[in-house]
Write a structure and sequence with these properties.
The protein is globular, with a radius of gyration of 18 Å. The chain has 7 helices and 5 strands. The protein is mainly alpha-helical and about 180 residues long. Helix 1 runs parallel beside helix 5. It comes from Saccharothrix espanaensis (strain ATCC 51144 / DSM 44229 / JCM 9112 / NBRC 15066 / NRRL 15764).
Length: about 180
C-alpha cells in the first residue's frame, strides 16, 4: 500500500524536521516486511496516525503527538514503545532533555505479505488498514483541494488525471517498483 498525505503537520517542533524524508521514504530506505506481531502493531489506528505524523512532520515528543492527535500522553508513550519494539520508530537520545523523549519514524519501504501468503487474520488487518488509509486519503485530498489557490502557478499545478490501462503482471510489478523509487528520490 502506498499512501501520501496533503495534510499539514499540527505538531510544533524545536529544530528542523528530517530533511531527507520525502513522502515518508528517504532515498536509500531499507525494505522491510511487516508480518506477525509487527503487522498487528502497525495495524492499530492510533499507531498509524502517530507514524504518519512522524513521517510528515519529523521528530516529536510523545507529549506533542498526544496534543496533535488528541490522546493522553500515557497512551501515546505506550504506542510509541510498541512501534519502537517492531522497528517502526526510534528514540533520538541526542534531543532528550530530562524525562522528555524524542521519537522519529524509521525510514523504510514497508511491504506486506502477498495476498496468496495471507491468512484470514492478516487479510482482515490489511483490509482494515486499507479502508482507513483510503478514507484518510480522500479527506486529505478534499482538504488540499479546498486549500489550493484558484489561480496562479500552484493552482495550475494541482494535478488531476484518471485513466485505465491493461498491463501484464510483470509490467505492473515493475511499474510499482519504479513508482516507489520515484517517491524515494
Amino acid at each position: 500500500m502506498v499512501r501520501g498525505s496533503a495534510m499539514k503537520s499540527t505538531i510544533r517542533r524545536e529544530g528542523p524536521p528530517d530533511d531527507a524524508v520525502l513522502a515518508g521514504r528517504p532515498a536509500g530506505a531499507q525494505r522491510g516486511d511487516a508480518r506477525g506481531g509487527a503487522l498487528k502493531a502497525l495495524a492499530h489506528p492510533r499507531r498509524q496516525q502517530m507514524l504518519d505524523e512522524l513521517h510528515r512532520g519529523g521528530p516529536a515528543t510523545s507529549a506533542a503527538l498526544a496534543r496533535a492527535l488528541d490522546l493522553n500522553t500515557g497512551a501515546t508513550s505506550y504506542h510509541l514503545r510498541e512501534l519502537a519494539r517492531h522497528g517502526f520508530v526510534e528514540e533520538l537520545p541526542e534531543r532528550a532533555r530530562g524525562r522528555e523523549r524524542w521519537w522519529r519514524a524509521v525510514p523504510a519501504d514497508i511491504r506486506f505479505p502477498r495476498r496468496g501468503e495471507q491468512g484470514a487474520e492478516v487479510r482482515a488487518l490489511l483490509v482494515g488498514m486499507d479502508e482507513r488509509g483510503f478514507a484518510e486519503d480522500v479527506a486529505a485530498f478534499h482538504r488540499a483541494r479546498s486549500a489550493a489557490p484558484d489561480d496562479g502557478a500552484w493552482g495550475d499545478a494541482f494535478p488531476y488525471s484518471r485513466g485505465t490501462v491493461t498491463v501484464s503482471l510483470e509490467r505492473f510489478e515493475a511499474f510499482f517498483e519504479e513508482y516507489l523509487a520515484l517517491l524515494a528520490k
